Amino acid sequence: MSxxxxxxxxxxxxxxxxxxxxxxxxVELEAKxxxxxxxxxxxxxARTKKAGRLLARERIEMLLxxxxxxxxxxxxxxxxxxxxxxxxxxxxxxxxxxxxxxMLNSNVGTIKGGAIDYATLQKGLRIGEIATENRLPMINMVxxxxxxxxxxxxxxxxxxxxxxxxxQRSQLGIPTISIVFGSSTAGGAYIPGMSDYVxxxxxxxxxxxxxxxxxxxxTNEVTDEESLGGAKMHSTVSGVSDxxxxxxxxxxxxxxxxxxxxxxxxxxxxxxxxxxxxxxNEEILGxxxxxxxxxxxxxxxxxxxxxxxxxxxxxxxxxxxxITGYAKINGYQIxxxxxxxxxxxxxxxxxxxxxxxxxxxxxPLLFLQNITGFMVGKKYEEEGIIKHGAKLINAVSNSTVxxxxxxxxxxxxxxxxxxxxxxxxxxxxxxxxxxxxAVMGPDQLAGVMQTIGRQAAEKSGIQYDEEQGKAMAGYMVxxxxxxxxxxxxxxQLWDDGVIDPRETRNYLKLxxxxxxxxxxxxxxGFGVFRM
Length: 531
Fold this sequence. Notes:
Layout: H1 13-36, H2 42-50, H3 56-63, E1 70-72, E2 90-97, E3 100-107, H4 118-133, E4 138-142, H5 152-171, E5 176-180, E6 183-185, H6 187-194, E7 197-201, E8 206-208, H7 212-219, H8 225-229, H9 231-238, E9 243-245, H10 248-260, H11 284-287, H12 298-302, E10 312-314, E11 322-329, E12 332-339, H13 345-360, E13 365-371, H14 378-382, H15 385-398, E14 403-412, H16 413-418, E15 428-431, E16 436-438, H17 442-460, H18 466-484, H19 486-491, H20 504-515
Parallel strand pairs: 3-4, 4-5, 5-7, 6-8, 7-9, 12-13, 13-14, 14-15, 14-16
Antiparallel strand pairs: 1-2, 2-3, 10-11, 11-12
Helix pairs in contact: 4-5, 5-6, 13-15, 17-18
């Protein structure tokens, strides 16, 4: 492969201006990350520590191997909603336990007793999906009051999918290990109840479908928490618990021991020395345009995230608004598809062709989105932009090699679909802090609505109020901006997290480690391509 020759001038006014704007976005990201670290009010944290118990994030830290990375997933779930706050009541992510890549899910018992709100439920479903696709053992650190009852209408019908997921992973040979650290009631009790391995901490774990007050109300039976659902009872009488830990650290030790005895899956890695990119990752902040309306060359980003800055471009002179080609990241072969402008027919055909080749070669795909959509207009409709765009969407839809998507700028309209947006099930999807995602840009949306309003007035034979139209357009721009920014999108779980662009290579390295825990095979057919 050829080494990329950068055209970036770090001393130019445009580079320095963009660098400053992107640094502002990083400050915003760091502030949001601090929000996501919240684990409850100080009085609840102090009470937990006084009792000699660990907090949710401390449990994860103790469980992970020394020096293991931890890639937190969906840390901004629920941001901007009326739920329990940024991140919900679970901390979840990927890391190594006893040398095995695992999905870790730790209830934050110091926020509402670990009760599940809507965002927390959706976050749980997403991490379950990732664990299933990549055949990752799931380790639950359980301390949950079950569903948040005021939210029951939004939670109950979908909540059962978490239990179904545990059962289905078990059938596939993907184990779930639960360490019960505290009170786990109702739905919280079914997490260990459905698990393959269950550890309960002595004198701390309390697992029951209904606590003593509800039992008294329902059956008039008088009992206490320990005899009703304590670790000793479940370990010696009911059999719900497989191991009784002496304390929290012993529970963590037992979980690590269980993982060490699990059957290993295939792991692929390069035996060669892996070259780092030739360019500094700090330069990414000056390379990637902080304003999604200003284009940038995605090749400059690619050169700063792939091994040795080497990139073998496919069809470089054809369909130039879509970049396609091969590279390696951490020794893993990957096919890259990146936007360098609006999608024309040639670019769509080129992308579909390249996806077929990657499936033929069993090569995973990386989509770098910065797209306003497909080209519109009479000329392009006559040339068949719809059918050519449909070919690309068909290829993305039927591709069976793992895909990773990063939104590096705009993600508008059908371009989001063609570039493997959330609906097309990439294994992982991350966003940069300045990114935008919507049907179209805010200004375009407001302009379209003004035109429609003006036409409707004309058809009705009434005078269109231009001042009112401008005011409404201004309002729509603000609302569209609010609902298309990275934080809103991440709060709705449209991605798996907003990341610092400088950390792109590290995220991709871990994602590729995860993807290669399983065998995968490219598609052998793509359905009908409209010619």
